[in-house]
């Protein structure tokens, strides 16, 4: 498995397809709902995990949110690959990328079901945040990045 940035149209198609499959389709959201307004902004950094057979098995994105702070969004691992270290590798890659650019803090809004995953990675809960689709509670979490 490797982590890399999507670059071709085919890469981005697979990237958004996995984001949709994991984060939107189970809640009957329409195709296209997986896209964010700032996905195509230059400062938004997209990455994907690619298995040895070429399949895209994980995706995530990062953007600067405040001074010295980045935000991670839309982390999704293919269900067949849960619990095999893909999420950890995606997050490590994003955190190292941000730290190398001088950012000192990373925040995210975690689904309730993913809070324990982010805790394992060193994030702490700051406060409850929004409830997605009326049924998925989220929690604002933060982590100081190693310099
Ligand atoms: C949450 C998610 C990104 C985790 O990715 P993953 O590849 O399954 O996680 P990893 O295998 O890298 O797990 C790293 C560690 O966290 C643990 N972990 C992973 N998911 C967990 C969870 N939901 N609850 C508790 N622990 C979890 C793993 O057991 C592992 O611990 P270990 O090192 O002690 O064995 C993935 O399960 C997913 O895509 N879920 C659905 C979408 C989602 O919730 N995305 C996050 C939106 S905020």
The helix/strand class is alpha+beta
The fraction of residues in strands falls at 35-45%
Hetero groups in this structure are:
coenzyme A
Stated plainly, the CATH topology is called Aminopeptidase
Number of helices: 3
Give helix and strand order, one letter per element, not per position: EHEEEHEHEE
The stretches of 5 or more residues where confidence is low (pLDDT under 50) are none
Mean pLDDT: 97
CATH superfamily: Gcn5-related N-acetyltransferase (GNAT)
Radius of gyration: 15 Å
Helix content: 10-25%
The tally of strands reads 7
The CATH class, by name, is Alpha Beta
Query: What is the count of distinct domains?
Result: 1
Q: What distance separates the N and C termini?
A: 27 Å
Please list the strands of the largest sheet in the order they lie side by side. 1-2-3-4-5-7-6
Largest sheet: 7 strands, mixed
Shape: globular
Detailed description of the structure:
- This protein has 147 residues and is of the alpha+beta class.
- Helix content is 24%, strand content 37%.
- The chain has helices at 9-23, 86-100, 115-120, and strands at residues 2-4, 45-50, 56-66, 69-77, 105-111, 124-132, 136-144.
- It has a seven-stranded mixed beta sheet, with helices on both faces.
- It binds coenzyme A.
- Coenzyme A (COA) binds at residues 22-23, 75-77, 82-88, 110-111, 113-114, 116-117, 120.
